[in-house]
Amino acid sequence: MSLLTDLEKQRLNDAIRTAEARTHGEIVTVIARTSGDYFYYPTLWAALLAIVSPSLLLALPVSPGPLGIIELQLVVFVLLAAALRWPPIKMRLVPRAVQRLHATRRARDQFHAQGLHRTREQSGILLFVSAAEHYVEIIADAGIHARVPDGTWDQLVQQFTARVQAGQIGEGFIAAVNAIGGHLQTHFPAEAGNPNELPDHLIEL
């Protein structure tokens, strides 16, 4: 199931084309449902809770034998290992720093995978979202960095991240594309011909 509706995708595509008509910069939008499987964390928590589960039996009037304890631990581990893989729970078990590391790596991988480093004037810019991590990053190529002041994208990222957390991913993309287009128009105004070097549609991973 897509994270954006067909209408939101169409509006986003239109926003990209409108923005790029005013600049020779290239805007690429990418959304990933998640940037990692994080298999280790649900398994670790299930194992730890299974180890301590026999302590619950201390409240019982009888003491089970060793086989009963082992069986309890196996049942607890299997049930928790399955339950803790439900994405909303699993992401709460993963440290925020680990989530950010995975999302940052994927954003940089996508910058190169989508060819943003190969534009004629190094004027490509990636708008990347990893939904499960509530992570947003804007990565600009060297040509943009040379003209756009440091910190320009920070406020856009903060605003977009808030919208991702609120489940308004489509609106966040459109607002960010419009804002990025304004900056690119100032520093990279459209030229004669103005070729379209990269795709204008949302790339879903």
What brief labels describe this structure?
alpha/beta; elongated; 205 residues; 53% helix; Diaminopimelate Epimerase, Chain A, domain 1; four-stranded mixed β-sheet
Can you put this structure into words, describing what you see?
With 205 residues, this protein is an alpha/beta fold. The chain folds into two domains: 6-36 and 96-204, Diaminopimelate Epimerase, Chain A, domain 1, CATH 3.10.310.50; 40-93, no CATH class. The chain is 53% helix and 11% strand. The protein contains eight helices and four strands. It has a four-stranded mixed β-sheet, with helices on both faces. Helix 1 (6-20) runs parallel beside helix 8, helix 2 packs antiparallel against helix 3 and helix 7 (154-165) runs antiparallel to helix 8 (169-187). The termini are close together. The mean pLDDT is 84.
CATH class of the largest domain: Alpha Beta
Shape: elongated
Poorly predicted regions: none
Q: What can be said about the biggest beta sheet?
A: 4 strands, mixed
> In percent, how much strand structure appears in the residues?
5-15%
Q: Which strand order spans the largest sheet, edge to edge or round the barrel?
A: 3-2-1-4
Count of β-strands: 4
| Euclidean distance between termini CA atoms | 12 Å
Short description:
The chain has 205 residues and is α/β, with parallel strands linked by helices. Helix content is 53%, strand content 11%.
List the helices and strands and how they pair.
Blueprint: H1 6-20, E1 26-32, H2 40-52, H3 66-83, H4 87-93, H5 96-113, E2 124-130, E3 135-140, H6 142-147, H7 154-165, H8 169-187, E4 203-204
Parallel strand pairs: 1-2, 1-4
Antiparallel strand pairs: 2-3
